Amino acid sequence: MKYIQAEYSGPLNGTVHIPGAKNSSLALLAAACLADNIVTLEGIPFIDDVRIIAEIGRDIGLKLQQEGGQVIIDPRWIHSSVIDPGKASSYRASYYFAGSLLSKFGKVTIGLPGGDDFVSRPIDQHIKVFKALGAQVHLFKDYYVVEAAELKGADIFFDTITSGATINAMLAAVLAKGRTNLHNAAMDPEVCDTANFLNRLGARIYGAGTEHIRIEGVSYLDGGTHTVIPDRLIAGAFLMAAGLHGGQVTVMDVIPEHLGSCLAKLQEIGMHVECGDNQITAYGTNLLKATRIRTGMYPSFATDLQQPMTALLLQAKGKSIVTDRIYPKRLAHVAQLRRLGAEIELRQESAFITGGRPLQGGWVHASDVRAGTCLLMAGLAAEGYTYITGVEHIERGYEDVIGSFRSIGAKLSMHELSAQEHLDQMRESQ
Ligand SMILES: CC(=O)N[C@H]1[C@@H](OP(=O)(O)OP(=O)(O)OC[C@H]2O[C@@H](n3ccc(=O)[nH]c3=O)[C@H](O)[C@@H]2O)O[C@H](CO)[C@@H](O)[C@@H]1O
Ligand SMILES: C=C(OP(=O)(O)O)C(=O)O
């Protein structure tokens, strides 16, 4: 079993190139199945979720070549819309194959989505979309089947704002007959990126980035080339890392507008932020101020930045409160931070942090990708050594977590734990 060793690193300084967004890439790769010609995607990160998509793609006949960040996809050879349940369940965004293959072939059989298992993550809004477009949905224990003789445009009001179901609705409706209106749609950059990509192939999607999206169905999508947007969540975490001990970190190749609420919070706690056209520099200070974080859907403060922000707030003198309104129970990292000596309490669905207390290294476990970033940051700020297990979760989101953090001076290394050492470590931590 792998683990990451993090050592107290003092201020972090340097420049990091930000890779393409995981959450956009997962949508774009499934969206590419809709094309009737060759698609080239640039900037796709080489992460575990993408490797699984490549496997799923190959199983169903999709020809896919990946070299560096470039992925060339030939969807003309897809011969099946039955997706291995185990593979679909090993990551969250497999539901995008449901939207795209339903749209293209009229039927899809697919495992229930997996992914970061921090809370229950319903797919009722995805199902609502498929049904509204005229499909039947049959749910089984660990897979579901969606089928439609014909998909017809519809008016769909989301009960709650969801980026996944908004993207899936675009995938399912893009080839449907007539007009689809999505109301209460998510406005995330990943929604816009998917709409821009589909439009480049010939789709007619209007209004992405607002709460009302209109899709005029077309009968054919051509091939084309598209570059995925930069990962705003990785960028945000690196900017936060600058705040740990008064460092200075520049993130390159980003879209600063995608990080508005994050930058505002960093400034609110006393950090200085400078934005260029496609780069941001954050300057830390040793006098961080406590604050209140409430996550929300874009453009509010992202739930995926909540955990790294919690690590940073351990350094801010005074009482901070963190509430995750998107996933109220996404707080597993709190118990782990306490193992490092953090003074942080859970009351109802908020974390109450008393910042400015010293942290001591120890063994901790990352239960999802952002919990991993949080623990890594806390480990870099703690005295001594911190050992982080659950590396497989971190690698779902980061192509080279060690290399990228090292480039700003973080003392990190990857190690292998034998089965016996793992048992000893579990016994010790009980
Ligand atoms: C692969 C991917 O892009 N993952 C991101 C995506 O997940 P994902 O797309 O799955 O999350 P959603 O945007 O759909 O979820 C937003 C909210 O809607 C709720 N909901 C969602 C769908 C549904 O059918 N019913 C329902 O009630 C969820 O429980 C949550 O409270 O957005 C989340 C919220 O920004 C991020 O944390 C994830 O990193
Ligand atoms: C929750 C996340 O991912 P996923 O939706 O793929 O599980 C995340 O990226 O923080």
From TrEMBL:
Superkingdom of origin: Bacteria
GO molecular function list: UDP-N-acetylglucosamine 1-carboxyvinyltransferase activity
Residues that hold phosphoenolpyruvate according to the record: K22, N23
Subcellular location: Cytoplasm
Record domain Enolpyruvate transferase: where: 9-401
InterPro entries: Enolpyruvate_Tfrase_dom (IPR001986), Enolpyruvate_Tfrase_sf (IPR036968), MurA_subfamily (IPR050068), RNA3'P_cycl/enolpyr_Trfase_a/b (IPR013792), UDP_GlcNAc_COvinyl_MurA (IPR005750)
Alphabetical UniProt keywords: Cell cycle, Cell division, Cell shape, Cell wall biogenesis/degradation, Cytoplasm, Peptidoglycan synthesis, Pyruvate, Transferase
Binding site for UDP-N-acetyl-alpha-D-glucosamine: R92, R121, P122, I123, D124, Q125, D304, I326
Keyword Nucleotidyltransferase assigned: no
Signal peptide: none
Principal EC category: transferase
Chief subcellular location: cytoplasm
UniProt pathway: Cell wall biogenesis; peptidoglycan biosynthesis
Biological role: Cell wall formation. Adds enolpyruvyl to UDP-N-acetylglucosamine.
Name recorded for this polypeptide: UDP-N-acetylglucosamine 1-carboxyvinyltransferase
